[in-house]
Specification:
468 residues, mainly beta, Immunoglobulin-like, Neuraminidase, 8-stranded antiparallel sheet, 4-stranded antiparallel sheet, 1 helix
C-alpha cells in the first residue's frame, strides 16, 4: 500500500549523504579538446554534457565532445552531419538531443554516440542560427524560432507566427514569452505565443524599453513563474546597462527589480536548483571575470566568487546533476568570429548549498527497478500484479523541486510525455514533493516501462512501472 512504500523510500532518501556546503566559488576543470564558442551544451540523462559545434576562429565546427563530471574531462564523440555555430539544442523525451539552426536539423543518440539528420525545416521559415531557443513544450514537441518539431514523426511544421525572438522562455502555463523580437517591419516589442492556438499576442513593455532592443540582453525563466530580463548594451549610449525587470505573465506587466551589481551583456544566466540565478561573464572586459546571484525572493543581485578567466560571450553554462554549474569555452577577446581569441577552458561554480537533481524512489529503496509509484485511486503500486493503464492517474514522490515553485516538472513514461495533473508538497513529508500524472496513450505494454522526471533541465534516475 502507499503508506508503507512511501515510508520505506523516504527513509532511504533521508540516508543519502548531503552535499557539503561551501561559499560560492569557481574552480577550473578539464579543458575541451578544441577551443570553441557559440556551441551548444546539453545535459544528458547519464549526467554527462554534450558539447557540439561552435566557432573555431571564423570557421564553424562539426565536432562534438562529452564532459564527464565524474572525471572532470572532455572526450570526443561522433561528429555532427554538418558544421554548425549559434545553433540551439534540447534534450527530447526519448533521450536523444535535437540540434537545429543553420542547415537543417539532426539528432544525437547518446547510446550510439552518433548524429543523424532528421526532418528538414519548412523552407523560408527557419532562422539560420542564433536567436531563438529550442523550447520543449509540455506535450513533447519543440518550438524553434518559427517552427515546431515533432519527435514522434521527426518532422517540422510552422508555428503560425511570423517572427522570432532573441529572448524566449517557456512559461508555467505552456505559453512562450518573447522579447527582443526580430521582425524588421515593426518595432521590437514583447509578446506571448500560445502553442495550442498558434496565436501570438503583444504584451506589456518594460519601463526601460532598452531591455527589448539592446544588444546582449539576457535573462531567465524563474521558478516562481516570472521572467527576468537584465543588462545589455544601449544602442544610444553604447554603455553596459545594470537595469533589470521582471515580467509577470499573470498580469502581463513588467516591474523593476534590483539592478545588477555591474553592467553586463552577452553573459550566461543559469537558474540554480533552489531558485536563484547565477550571472557570469560579460562582453565588458572590466567585468568579465565577475559573477553575481539574483535572488527572486529578495529581488536583488549580490556578488559571488569570481570566475577563473574572462569570458566575453559565446560560452555555455549548464546546471549539473550535483547542483554545480559547468561553464565552457567562449571568446576571451574581440567577440566577433572573424578576429577572436577563443578558449577551450572550462570551470565549475559551486553554490553555497548545491541542490542535486530530482530523485525518484523505488520499492527496493535503491532508486532502481520497480518504482514507488501508485494508482492514485487505490494507493497500490503499479506493479506486474496491478499494472497501470493508458489514461490512468498515478502518483509518486520526488525531491529537489523548488519550494513554492510554479514551473511544472516533466514526466516521461516509456519515452512519451505524460500530462502532469498536480505537483506540490508531499502531505506529511516536509521537503518532499508529490506529483500526479496521467499515463500517456501509446505507451507499449510491459512489466518494466521506464519512468523519468525532468526539472530545470535535469533528469532524475529511471524507475519502472507495469503497463497493461
Amino acid at each position: 500500500m502507499r503508506t508503507s512504500v512511501t515510508l520505506q523510500v523516504l527513509l532511504f532518501a533521508a540516508g543519502v549523504a548531503a552535499l557539503a556546503q561551501s561559499p560560492g566559488t569557481f574552480t577550473p576543470t578539464g579543458s575541451m579538446t578544441i577551443a570553441r564558442a557559440g556551441h551548444t551544451a546539453t545535459l544528458l540523462p547519464n549526467g554527462k554534457v554534450l558539447i557540439a559545434g561552435g566557432y573555431s576562429g571564423s570557421a564553424q565546427l562539426a565536432s562534438a565532445e562529452l564532459y564527464d563530471p565524474a572525471t572532470g574531462t572532455f572526450t570526443r564523440t561522433g561528429d555532427m552531419t554538418v558544421p554548425r555555430a549559434g545553433s540551439k539544442a534540447v534534450l527530447l523525451p526519448n533521450g536523444k538531443v535535437l540540434i537545429a539552426g543553420g542547415v537543417g536539423a539532426e539528432l544525437y543518440d547518446p547510446t550510439t554516440e552518433t548524429f543523424i539528420a532528421t526532418g528538414g525545416p519548412v523552407p523560408g521559415a527557419f532562422p539560420l542560427g542564433g536567436g531563438s531557443n529550442a523550447i520543449l513544450l509540455p506535450d513533447g514537441t519543440v518550438v524553434f524560432g518559427l517552427q515546431l518539431y515533432d519527435p514522434i514523426t521527426g518532422t517540422f511544421s510552422t508555428t503560425g507566427s511570423s517572427f522570432w525572438a532573441y529572448n524566449d522562455f517557456l512559461l508555467a502555463d505552456g505559453r512562450i514569452f518573447l522579447a527582443r523580437i526580430y521582425w524588421p517591419v515593426l518595432p521590437l516589442y514583447a509578446a506571448i505565443y500560445d502553442p495550442v492556438s498558434r496565436w501570438t499576442q503583444s504584451t506589456g513593455a518594460p519601463e526601460d524599453t532598452n531591455l527589448l532592443s539592446d544588444d546582449g540582453v539576457g535573462g531567465a525563466a524563474l521558478a516562481n513563474g516570472k521572467v527576468l530580463l537584465a543588462g545589455g548594451i544601449s544602442e544610444e549610449t553604447k554603455l553596459f546597462s545594470t537595469a533589470a525587470e521582471l515580467y509577470d505573465p499573470s498580469t502581463g506587466t513588467f516591474s523593476p527589480t534590483g539592478d545588477m551589481t555591474v553592467g553586463r551583456a552577452h553573459y550566461s544566466a543559469t537558474p540554480l536548483g533552489d531558485g536563484p540565478v547565477l550571472i557570469a561573464g560579460s562582453s565588458g572586459v572590466d567585468v568579465s571575470t565577475t559573477a553575481e546571484l539574483y535572488d527572486p525572493v529578495a529581488g536583488a543581485f549580490s556578488r559571488t566568487g569570481n570566475p577563473t578567466m574572462a569570458r566575453l560571450g559565446g560560452q555555455t553554462a549548464t546546471l549539473l546533476q550535483d547542483g554545480t554549474v559547468l561553464i565552457v569555452g567562449g571568446w576571451t577577446s574581440n567577440s566577433t568570429p572573424s578576429a577572436a581569441i577563443l578558449t577551450a577552458s572550462a570551470e565549475l561554480y559551486k553554490p553555497s548549498a548545491p541542490v542535486p537533481a530530482p530523485l525518484l524512489f523505488s520499492v527496493s529503496g535503491d532508486g532502481q527497478g520497480q518504482g514507488a509509484i501508485w494508482h492514485a485511486t487505490t494507493g497500490q503500486v503499479a506493479s506486474a500484479n496491478n499494472p497501470a493503464a493508458a489514461g490512468e492517474a498515478l502518483s509518486m514522490y520526488t525531491t529537489s523541486l523548488v519550494e513554492g515553485g510554479v514551473m511544472p516538472p516533466q514526466v516521461t513514461v516509456g519515452g512519451l510525455v505524460a500530462k502532469v495533473l498536480f505537483f506540490g508538497d508531499a502531505p506529511g513529508y516536509p521537503g518532499y514533493f508529490q506529483i500526479n500524472f496521467q499515463v500517456p496513450a501509446g505507451v507499449p505494454p510491459g512489466s518494466s516501462v521506464p519512468v523519468m522526471l525532468t526539472y530545470s533541465g535535469r533528469s532524475s534516475n529511471a524507475v519502472s512501472i507495469s503497463v497493461q
